[in-house]
Write a structure and sequence with these properties.
Layout (H helix, E strand, L loop, with lengths): L8 H16 L3 H19 L4 H7 L14
Helix pairs in contact: 1-2, 2-3
Length: 71
């Protein structure tokens, strides 16, 4: 988040997947809050009809490559 910002598509993809993981682990309150915020940001950034936004809204895991930060 510090490097790319809260509305960068990679940040949003990672947050989508984190919300799904939290939900599966039973942390539903945190998952729902993160999901709501993430889907809102996706709609503002990518548009509400973008496939990534629609998938995130439906709790579908984001499929993307995230490059690790160089050490």
């Amino acid at each position: 988040i510090r490097l790319l910002g809260t509305t960068h598509p990679i940040t949003l993809a990672a947050q989508t997947n984190l919300a799904i993981d939290l939900r599966r682990l039973g942390h539903t309150t945190h998952a729902e809050q993160l999901h709501t915020t993430t889907v809102t940001h996706m709609g503002e950034t990518l548009g509400i009809n973008h496939p990534a936004t629609r998938n995130a809204a439906g709790w579908v895991r984001a499929d993307c490559d995230i490059d690790p930060m160089p050490l």
